[in-house]
């Protein structure tokens, strides 16, 4: 029997279970129709329209007719409508859990309030933590990566590289935790990781038969950083990338660039710190001791101590081309035609797509009023980062202009040319997925006479088997990086205050939630 009562705020549905119908005991499962009494359960359900819905359900309390059952009486349950000790219907409970998985505490409570379901953030989080995690199946291909948890602490994330679903995460990135997990979940055949020594040791101890694969992206990233270090050490060669200076130039570009870098305030500061750090570290003092005496961070001291010249650690502002540069020829033409009003010139440039301010146009034509030529944008030498990007970019993807500048730079600097040749050889191995020439390439890297490349060769030799697998096999850590991005998103949604257990719940459950709804077929309109 069902009746409904519509009040101003809540829609109340009154229902009653049938008498005489046997119900299964919640203790032993035996059917019983022996009624003890009745009572009313008030169940919250999803909204009807824009109004909350409450179901006042009259249910029976029955005697259990099984003498061996520990229960004397039990309350009947209505499948699909009631759950023991639950004041929400299963449909509303699934909604609360899904909102908690997607939006966590405060965000979930706000979303439920929009749906006319009033719950506190603590209730949403408690319901989320009650959701059981999916059963964990040992993957054949395992992805291992670390992520920044909070402050200076890190965590470890495990991903099934075949299904692309996260398995678990924990705080810390030590080898013992990883090896213990692998021993508890035998069956991993391939383990994808970065060049971390910690994960290498953990996989070797926990799954000695698994093939370790060093990720191609991290290999390329490590090589690119060494190339940038070499470009920083040979900063004086970078102006050679510019076109030959004309006879009208007052001074060579090389001298101007060097003097500007030397005389700048940042250059003087970097040189003083470089000299102070090296003067103290040469005496055998530790980086921590030097950091305390100079009032610097230990990582800053380490960076200056590892540098061979002060130019390597000098920060340079990014160089941005002026937005007015494409219109300088037009300004010169209109000035020669007799238009000397900066306001009118600015309006004309706006009609041609210029989005800059009037003052920039006024300052640009100021030399013309004094009988001087326009200030043409001067070509600047590439930064070490730009030069490293030119070297690591495939020749077919570089513009002809960049290829010409790089050719001039490599003709001037034998060290950068040798670096370029080594990078291209490594690229060939990656493109062909052929690691047969890896030992010879590592030997050439060590014999190059360039300290950054020699250090890289030593690190890769210790991990040469995993490096060869990373080059020759299709396995990589791309899915790991994608899941790390998802972890960062969930951390930001919870303002970084989530515990590790809550973060694990959300990261694992939200991936399965997306997969479940992505697999559902969409209904076509009409």
Please characterize this protein's 3D structure.
The protein has 20 helices and 12 strands. With 526 residues, the protein is an alpha/beta fold. The model is unreliable at 247-263 (pLDDT under 50). Strands 1, 2, 5, 6 and 7 form a 5-stranded mixed β-sheet that branches. The chain has a 5-stranded mixed β-sheet with strand order 10-9-8-11-12, with helices on both faces. The protein has helices at 90-114, 121-130, 175-184, 197-206, 216-233, 253-263, 265-281, 287-294, 298-306, 328-336, 342-351, 358-369, 384-392, 400-412, 414-432, 438-446, 451-462, 464-472, 478-493, 500-518, and strands at residues 2-6, 11-16, 23-24, 31-32, 35-48, 51-63, 73-75, 141-150, 153-160, 165-171, 190-193, 211-214.
In short:
With 526 residues, the protein is of the alpha/beta class. 48% of the residues lie in helices and 15% in strands. Helix 3 runs parallel beside helix 4 and helix 11 (342-351) packs across helix 12 (358-369).
Summary keywords:
extended, single chain, 5-stranded mixed beta sheet, alpha/beta
Summarize the topology:
Blueprint: E1 2-6, E2 11-16, E3 23-24, E4 31-32, E5 35-48, E6 51-63, E7 73-75, H1 90-114, H2 121-130, E8 141-150, E9 153-160, E10 165-171, H3 175-184, E11 190-193, H4 197-206, E12 211-214, H5 216-233, H6 253-263, H7 265-281, H8 287-294, H9 298-306, H10 328-336, H11 342-351, H12 358-369, H13 384-392, H14 400-412, H15 414-432, H16 438-446, H17 451-462, H18 464-472, H19 478-493, H20 500-518
Parallel strand pairs: 2-6, 8-11, 11-12
Antiparallel strand pairs: 1-2, 3-4, 5-6, 6-7, 8-9, 9-10
Helix pairs in contact: 1-2, 1-20, 3-4, 5-13, 5-15, 5-17, 8-9, 11-12, 14-15, 15-16, 16-17
